[in-house]
Amino acid sequence: MAFWINAYNALSIYGVVKKLRKDPGFAKRGNSSLIQKARFFVLERFDIGNRRFSLRSLENYIREEFKDPRIHFALNCSSMSCPPLKDGLYSAENLDEELEHATWFYINSPQGSRLDRDRNVLWLSMIFRWYKKDFESDGLEVLDFVARYLPERDKQYVNEKLDTLTIKHVDYDWSLNVQ
Q1: Lowest mean pLDDT among 19-28, 68-77, 134-143
Q2: In terms of domains, do 130 and 98 share one?
Q3: Would you state the pLDDT for residue 179?
Q4: Are residues 138 and 78 in the same domain?
Q5: Are 86 and 49 in the same domain?
Q6: Nearest-angstrom CA–CA distance, 130 and 90
Q7: Residue 70 located in a structural domain
Q8: pLDDT per residue over 164-176, tens digit each?
Q9: What beta strand segments (E) does the chain contain?
Q10: How many CB atoms are located within 10 Å of the residue 172 CB?
């Protein structure tokens, strides 16, 4: 799993560098239009072993092969709303700990979730909407997954207000994360 996560992240960075060489304006636009997203994530192909993958097909392969929802917080598509890149590569020896850290870090970032107690709203990343089924297992819902990673005070609030809490999703920022 570590190999495939690292491959995805490396190819995403490679794709950005390749686009920037051809079109420096990509730094400001990123993948903001549907056509740009299709070109970047679907049409561009990469050889890994004896297979050809687009970033989209590689992401789906990783999701289906490993069925670990924490993968979503290790993959970086180079957009502002993506989980941040790990400082270094993921390792097979420490992968579980690294995925736990990446998940906790993203869920507790403004891109991952925000709890608005005044309005009784939990704002979640679009990742939780797009990949809802990945976070649901054994009768658990997306909220159960998210709550595991919230600070204790927020987790308590979410559990107490479960019946009345409104879930909304933050708009995904597809602009290029040039950092």
Answers
A1: 19-28
A2: no
A3: 61
A4: no
A5: yes
A6: 24
A7: yes
A8: 999 999 998 887 7
A9: 46-48, 51-53, 113-116, 121-124, 166-169
A10: 16
- R_g over Cα of the chain: 17
Tokens of 136: 């649901």
Asked if residue 83 belongs to a domain, the reply is yes
Please provide residue 110's backbone torsions phi and psi, each rounded to the nearest 5 degrees. -60, -25
pTM over 0.85: yes
CB 5 within 8 A of CB 71: yes
In terms of domains, do 89 and 148 share one? no
| Residue 112 · residue 169 · CB < 8 Å | no
Which residue, chain included where needed, has tokens 């708009």? Answer: 171
Nearest-10 Cα torsion for 169, 146, 82, 92: -160
* Run of H or E including 134: helix 132-135
Q: Residue 148 belongs to what domain range?
A: 113-169
Domain assignment of residue 175, yes or no: no
Q: Are 96 and 12 contained in the same domain? A: yes
